[in-house]
Design goal:
By secondary structure, the chain is of the alpha+beta class. Helices cover about 15% and strands about 40% of the residues. The strands form 5 sheets. It has a 10-stranded antiparallel barrel. It has a two-stranded antiparallel ribbon with strand order 1-2. The radius of gyration is 26 Å and the shape is elongated. The two termini are about 10 Å apart.
Length: about 375
């Protein structure tokens, strides 16, 4: 009997995974057009001649020398507000979903499921146009400098497992990927169902209540680090439909904290500072690079060395509402959830300029 349930459960999970794959893979066929490009999020220095940018100065500093200007005075600078907004919206998309009822699987229970989430972003904002890669020009095979049509939804697909522990505790793990990127997302959750095990008498009529926390982090890009922490409280109540079926509506609140940090970013990745300089080592007295190549004014060509920077740290706090509905039939487990900003993110984070976000999630799997 157990073997038959296991075989049925595995077949159900595989079938659901295939369904999700059919949705994801057409988008993944254009993989890379939503990969972050933080090097494009720059502030142009004041006083540039018409038609020039800090990137064009790095490619041809001699043009400014001919105009009587010092190219060293026009380095690229980080656009910190744009980076913060990009990280905040991407963090909302990969945040711990708390996509479970308040009741755990129980000490002997185990759940494995596939989860698909779709998060709205402010795709009309410049930080998504500049901050994501976009498509190559098929006629010239060159990469565009902006993403002309970024996706309006961030898609995250993940495999999730849950395991109940004694005293109403539960552990969960999740690992997945962000469609149309090379980014992977992983993390874990812990939950405590406070009333679990006390289901007789008056307490049997009360909803299940739990508190939980989770962490998700992004890997796959060395230029920035993104980690999200979610602390939630949930209430749910199973509604029996038949001997082996249940509907489980849930509501909850989540405090979401998004941590974004930058590594060193090269804002002119197509210009090799060492080659332009003709690098010949470091001056032991000053620590400055020794260059064989000079500008037309006789100065060493150290212009591109000033075009690396780090963004300011991003710390964003947001309040999310959670509404979900699960259906269980024997070992089959299906669910959907809608999570949304309860308050305007700008209330606590004045540097944010995007709209409120929401995430629609679906899951399907097996429950043992």
């Amino acid at each position: 009997m157990i073997g038959r349930f296991v075989r049925q459960g595995c077949a159900t999970l595989v079938g659901f995974a295939a369904l999700l794959a059919s949705v994801a893979f057409p988008r993944v066929a254009h993989a890379g057009n939503m990969d972050p490009t933080p090097e494009r999020l720059v502030v142009q220095p004041p006083g540039l001649p018409p038609g020039q940018t800090c990137q064009s100065v790095a490619r041809d500093p001699g043009a400014l020398v001919s105009a009587g200007l010092r190219p060293q005075d026009f380095p690229c600078r980080p656009d910190n507000p744009a980076f913060a907004n990009l990280v905040s919206e991407l963090g909302f998309a990969i945040a711990p979903s708390a996509f479970t009822p308040a009741r755990t699987t129980g000490v002997g229970g185990f759940q494995m499921s596939v989860e698909a989430s779709y998060t709205r972003i402010s795709s009309d904002r410049s930080y998504w146009h500049l901050g994501t890669r976009g498509q190559k020009d098929s006629s010239t095979n060159t990469q565009s400098i902006v993403n002309a049509s970024p996706d309006s939804l961030i898609q995250v697909y993940a495999l999730k497992v849950r395991k109940g522990l004694p005293y109403g505790f539960e552990l969960a793990g999740s690992f997945g990927f962000i469609a149309n990127t090379e980014l992977w997302v992983g993390g874990g959750d812990v939950r405590w169902a406070m009333l679990e095990g006390f289901r007789t008498g008056v307490l049997g009529y009360l909803p299940d209540v739990s508190i939980g926390g989770g962490v998700r982090t992004v890997v796959g890009d060395s230029r920035f680090y993104l980690t999200t922490v979610g602390i939630d409280v949930k209430a749910s109540k199973p509604i029996p439909i038949a001997d082996s079926s249940q509907l489980i509506p849930s509501i909850g609140y989540q405090r979401l904290i998004i941590y974004g940090d930058s590594n060193v970013v090269d804002s002119t990745p197509n210009v090799d500072a060492l080659r332009e300089c003709g690098y010949n080592g470091i001056d032991p007295a000053s620590g400055a690079p020794i260059c064989r190549n000079n500008l037309p004014n006789g100065q060493p060509n150290t212009v591109d060395f000033a075009n690396t920077f780090t963004f300011q740290k991003v710390r964003v706090h947001r309040n999310r509402g959670l509404v979900s509905l699960h259906y269980r039939y024997e070992i089959l487990w299906l669910g959907s959830q809608f999570s949304f900003d309860i308050t305007d993110p700008k209330d606590e984070n004045p540097f944010l300029v995007g709209n409120r976000q929401w995430t629609l999630s679906f899951e399907g799997g097996v429950f043992f």
